[in-house]
Structure prediction request, 176 residues.
Amino acid sequence: MITWKKHFVYLADYQHWANDVLFASLDYVDDAARQSPQGLFFDSAHNTVDHILAVNRLWLSRLQGQPVAVDFKKAQYPDWRELKNALRHEVRDMQHWLEAQPDAFFEGEISYSSSNGELKANWVRDILTHMMSHMVHHRGQVSAVATRLGAPVPEMDFIYYKRETERHLEQFKKNA
Prediction:
């Protein structure tokens, strides 16, 4: 039986995997291209990836009951390598934190202050769904930009993650 906890831990692993697929594609273009204006809401591919990180930090801190101020107007990590590593660590840390939560946490509700100071409340599972779909949404935009800039098409669909995971498990079983 799948629980909310298992579901979101699994999706966090997928996010980590999909980010790496996107990074491998974006590594084919130079830094100037990654930072060039591309008509995205956050202008460039680099700034959009930085936004993914900032939003993940904001929501995770809310879930943890430790609000953090995030400045959406400036890049947290101007260096591409540092940005990739920060997002890798952030998503993996989120996965480990989710694994450590009791099942009941995923059935609960949290209250937090919105960016404009309003007190809000949402179900944990709705916040986590938003976090996961937010990353997918922006990765899709960055993927389109990456291919327009000449990078290989990043195959980031969930089903590709599932297939790769199954191949790794089969290989592990053969080697065990």
User: Anything to note?
Assistant: Residues 124-148 form the longest helix (25 residues). The domain at 4-175 is CATH 1.20.120.450 (Four Helix Bundle (Hemerythrin (Met), subunit A)). The chain has a mean pLDDT of 94.
